[in-house]
Amino acid sequence: MLKISLGVTLAYIVLLVVAGIRAHSLALLSEAGHNLSDFLALLLSLVAVYLQSRPASSTKTYGYHRAGVLAALVNAVSLVAVSFFIFYEAFRRLQHPEHVQASVMMWVAGAGVVMNGVIALLLYRSAQRSGGDVNIRSALLHEVGDTLSTAAVIAGGWAILLTGDYWIDSALSFGIGALILWSGFGIVRETLNILLEGTPRGLQLELVESAIRSIEGVNDVHDLHCWSIGSETRALSCHIAIADIPPSVSERILRDVKDCLHHNFRIDHTTIQFEHVECEVAHGCVIPVGESEEHHHSH
Fold first, then answer.
1. Which of 36, 110, 187, 244 has the highest CB neighbour count under 10 A?
2. CATH number at residue 256
């Protein structure tokens, strides 16, 4: 899938560049830049899929789960850079408009709508199967954005044919640049949250704590942390206070906690420490800032 998308996208980039130069259309050249970032996204995704399949080792104990996250971050940063270049060039052309061959714009953009639409549909199905992988979603966002922006280029070409106003080409470029910038910042924000080991997107730590507390045998939960190892792999660590009971009984509590985390929050990698006495500061317990008032645990 990714290899086919790479080949088709590269061919369309060449077409956009040639057509953009011949038609003097900044909108088509902007689309080439947009599609170039998509080409890099797909290429990085292909490399990431390979790296993520590599097993863990003594030096990479979590494996290479974050390879896809790093790929998405690099791609998103490149999108931001491309958008600012488009803004600069569009502003320059507003001051000095150039003659644009609107018919060429429309035909090339029409081919792009079909191509990007098909690739976006295939990526959407892959994203559904992968459970929302951030790397696939970043590539999907680009393809959806390309489909919309190429459709806008068709409309702009039609407007130029009707009015003869060549500033429309630059205005379209501003719109495409804004779309690129918006999608880029969104992916940067999410990938940085993963790399900084923030709480996974869409997960509320309060709900996780409440679910653990509701399990029979759990007296208290503290030092609760949840983060993403990769875009699809969530991890959790916490201290759970229980009664002074035999290991055979505590094993049942541990099993119930893990089942709850798996079914309700898709958390499978857990490190859980049982305690039956009050935890001391020397043990290294940390309660997130702003939540200390909600706990009955003293440091």
1. 187
2. 3.30.70.1350
Q: Are strands 267-275 and 220-228 parallel, antiparallel or unpaired?
A: unpaired
How far apart CA 87 and CA 66 sit, in angstroms, is 32
The DSSP secondary-structure symbol of 268 reads E
Q: Which domain holds residue 153?
A: 2-195
162 and 45 housed in the same domain: yes
Tens of pLDDT along 253-293?
999 999 999 999 999 999 999 988 665 544 555 544 444 44
Helix ranges, 24-133 (H): 26-52, 67-95, 102-130
* Measured CA distances, 76 to 38, 44, 88, 122, 297 (Å): 10, 11, 19, 21, 41
pTM exceeds cut of 0.85: no
Q: Are residues 258 and 123 in the same domain?
A: no
Contact 249, 263 (CB under 8 A): no
Residue 16 CA to residue 26 CA, distance in Å, equals 10
Where are the alpha helices (H) located in 24-66, listed in sequence order? 26-52
CA distance 205 to 113: 41
Query: What does the DSSP 8-state code read for residue 66?
Result: T
Q: For tokens 């690099």, name the residue.
A: 74
Kindly state whether residues 209 and 119 are assigned to the same domain: no
Q: Are residues 274 and 129 in the same domain?
A: no
User: Residue 9: which of 28, 37, 51 has the closest Cα?
Assistant: 37
